[in-house]
Structures are given as C-alpha cells and as structure tokens.
Amino acid sequence: MNINQIIKILKKTESFGMQTDSLLNTLAFTAEKVEYSTGDLIIKSGEKDVKCVVILEGKAYVQKKMSPIELKAGSVIGLLSLINGSSPKNTLIAGTKGLALSISKELFEKLSHEFPDFNKNLKSKLISDLNNKVISLKATMDQ
Predict the structure, then answer these.
(1) CA terminus-to-terminus distance, the chain
(2) Domains of the chain, with CATH numbers?
(3) What angle do CA 62, 125, 70 make, to 5 degrees?
(4) pLDDT tens across 85-119, in order?
(5) With contact defined as beta carbons under 8 Å apart, do 97 and 46 qualify?
(6) What does the alpha-carbon distance between residue 103 and residue 79 come to, in Å, rounded to a whole number?
(7) Any alpha helices (H) in 45-104, and if so which ranges?
(8) For 52, which of 1, 85, 103, 114 could close a Cys bridge (C-beta 3.0–4.6 Å)?
C-alpha cells in the first residue's frame, strides 16, 4: 500500500480526517506499517507500549467480555491511550490477513510538537464525542 492510499484512508476517519494534508503525509510516511495474519495479536491487553492502530486492510477484533467488536479498514483504536498514556485495556486480534498503521507514543508526541493544531483538533473531537455520549445516555435514562 502506498502513502497516498494510506492518506486517503486516514482522511476518511473521524479521528484524523480533520487534520492537515501535511500532517497526514508525515503520519502516513513515518508510522510503522504492520502486516498481520488471522489470529495475530495486534495489541495485547495491558502491554507497556502505548500505541494507536489504524486498520488499513483486512479485519481485526477487539476482544470484549460479552462479544468481540469488528474493526475494518479505517477503524482507529488506542487514540485515547496516546493522549493519556494509558495501557490498552482490550486485546486486538487479527480476523483476516491485513495491514495496520501503528502510531507510537513517541511519534504522537513529535507530531503534537511539530503540528500544534493536531492535538487541539483531537481534543475537540474527543470532547464532542463525549458530549454526544452524555446526551445519548441522558435520553436513554429519561425514557
């Protein structure tokens, strides 16, 4: 997969779609590309390395107690871990052969320093998401 294809996928994500072309180009070029096969551990619960993963090709599953959550191309997991430095709570297992973009804590901090709007845009997105969840929960409780 070439850099332009990776940028196209990043632009379609809610997490990175609002970022500048310059940042997306740097991210697509610099972040580690990880090939995986069915059953591979992409993220291990509680692992020390804090990272964010963007699924570029294939499928992966977040292992939850009740039922797994399927992730497809364009899915992003672990972004909050990068922001608050926490270890991943759930395991991410490859469901098919595929490719992922792995964003390390070091790369995230470097991008935040070089592109000040990056962090600001992400925080605005997270605040918006949290507000929408609160509204949704409130509406559910009022029923």
Answers:
(1) 48
(2) 32-105 (2.60.120.10)
(3) 15
(4) 887 888 899 999 999 999 999 999 999 999 988 87
(5) no
(6) 9
(7) 79-84
(8) 103
Q: Please state the pTM of the whole predicted model.
A: 0.85
Work out the angle at residue 81's Cα, subtended by the Cα atoms of residues 77 and 84, and round it to the nearest 5 degrees: 150
Q: What is the Cα–Cα distance from 71 to 59, expressed in whole angstroms? A: 6
Task: Please check the confidence at residue 65 and state whether its pLDDT lies above 80.
Answer: no
Amino acid at 16: F
Residue type, 108: F
User: DSSP 3-state assignment of 81?
Assistant: helix
* Closest alpha carbon to 95 in 62, 141, 121, 118: 62
Consecutive H or E run containing 103: strand 98-104
* Dihedrals phi, psi of 92, to nearest 5 degrees: -115, 120
pLDDT digits (tens, 9 = 90+) for 101-110: 999 999 999 9
